[in-house]
Each structure stands twice: as C-alpha cells, then as structure tokens.
Fold:
Amino acid sequence: MSVTARSDVHVSHHQLLVVDQDGLHAHPQDVPNGLTAAVPGAAVIRTGIHSGVVDVTVRLATSAPPRDTEGWDEVEEVELISFTGETMLIGLLCDRPELPGLTPQGPGRYGMRVQVRGRDIDPCAVPRVPFEFYLVTVWPIDVGPEACARLGIGVAEELGLPGKADLIRQWALEHGSPQQEPGRLAGRERPMTPPVPVRAPAVTDEHRLRIVNPYQDTAAAPSLPGGLVAAAPDSVAIRTLKRRGVVGVHVRWELAAPLSSASGWEEVEEIEFVTTTGVMHFAGVSTDDERRPNLTFQGAGRYRLRVHGRARPRERLGNRPGESYLLAIWPIALGAQAAG
Structure:
C-alpha cells in the first residue's frame, strides 16, 4: 500500500531539496547522474528551469515498487539517510509545499526514486503553470531503533553534535548498545565474540585502500601515508603498491592486542583510530556472502589496527592477488566518550 500526494512546488537555482527538518545537513552540490544525488541527511533534485513552478507527486511506499520508465524521460535512484525521520521536499529558498514528510517510519535508510518528464522543454522559462513533472517515490530500507544504532544515530549527539534523536539515544541506552555506553575498557565488561576471520579481494584506488562508514562517508580522509597506514576520525587509509587494481585482504579480530605480529610479512605498522559510529567497512571489498565485514563490530570508540603487507609474484596456478594485507584489529576503549 502506498500514499500519494501532488503539489505545485516553487523552485529556484534549478533545485528541489530533500532535507531533514532540522536543516543542519548541507545538500550535495555534485550530481553525477544529472538528476539527483544524496548525502547523509539531504538530497537534491535538479530541475530544468532555473526558477518557477514544477509539478511534484510524492509517493510513499512500503517497499521498492517495480521500476517503471514508460512515460518518463529520466529515472534515477539514490539512497537517502534521515537522521530525524522528518525529511521533507522543498524548493531551494522557497516555502514548504503541501506535501507529506518523506520518512514516516522514522530515522534510518530509505530508497528514493526520481522520475521526470519535460525537464528539457524550456530551461529559460519562468513558468507559473508547470510543464515539468516529477514523481518522487520513497520507501524504507533499514529503519527503526536498531537501524539507527547501526548508522550511529545518537552517537554524535553524545559527542555534542546536533541533529540526533533523543528517542533513539534512550533506546540504545536501555538496550546496552556499545555506541552509547560511557567509555569503558574493552574486553573487561561484557566481552563480545570476534567474528570469523575474513579473506577477500579488494579494489585499490590511487594507492589507497579506504576504511570508512559507507552510510556516512563524509569524514575527512587522511593524507596518503608515507608508510603503510594513516588514520583520521572515522577514516583509515592503507597505502598500496598498486595505484589501481585488486589486492588481497585478510581481516582478523582480536579482543586484546596480539602478543606478536604474524610471520611471513614484509611490512608491519600499527596505529590507533577512532570511530564515532561503530561502522567501519572496507570500500571496495566483496566477500562470498556479498556482505562487507564491519571492522568495528563492538561499536563506537578507540581501536588499534596492526597492518601487515607483502607483495609476491602472481602464482601461475590459482588467482590470488600478488599484493596482500593482513589486518589485526582490537578495541582500546568503547563508547561515545571514548570516541570523543
């Protein structure tokens, strides 16, 4: 079952905005597909006209509807993250139209499909009667308190950052989520069983393997390290020999610092890093079950990372990458205070 509503919407500067009601998240400026783009907390839809009125229909669905391109000039989809559950569609610098909120299921991840026709009719016009028509369909992907905890919604509020929901923070506190606990020594209280070690191919880009939160990939990236690895808050970079290509990655989780480094590796380097969300994935890593491993599964806090690297000639038999890395990771202190 879906809910549909239509309204004339005033736009300016070629932009319809999809923003959280708190207005704290800047919308994206770059739109690679030419129609729509999103960053955590905001999205933009590019209109053909600079200023004037367009016709917008909002459809709220419970799941992704079949993709229908008939009668539409362009169809594009993006993933939207709402921090407040009060996301709305408005024209840039314009009053809010009579349209429902886009995220009625609350904070979390949503899919957004934008369909348009008439965008290229007359970009120089300033119409009072719309000739550009937009259908914006939104459906939930991952919502609710558990989804918010996975996305780190509530952690930033603990750190004194704005725009997070008190309700989600309270839920996490009541359920003992590590992201919300005061800083504590990892492994002393309620230790968690580490996941099974993972081995997978990874794609390197510009001599980097990146470790980030893929749902909030807005953290400042560290400079390309002179050695093997460098870190900034919520972002880690491993320097690779290959500029671009496939390398092997092995990930091993520990509850405490290993007594010694693994043998058979040419380089070993160790650093400390911070995650404010408790979600840190390799960018460009795929596993057999198509799920990227979360390196910081115990939640937000401070972690230690030991990186081993080696390069070997490609073997004649088999398809293992000639360059590979072993990562051993363990927590130092968990919780929002530790991350701060």
Remarks:
- The mean pLDDT is 79.
- The first strand starts at residue 3 and ends at 11.
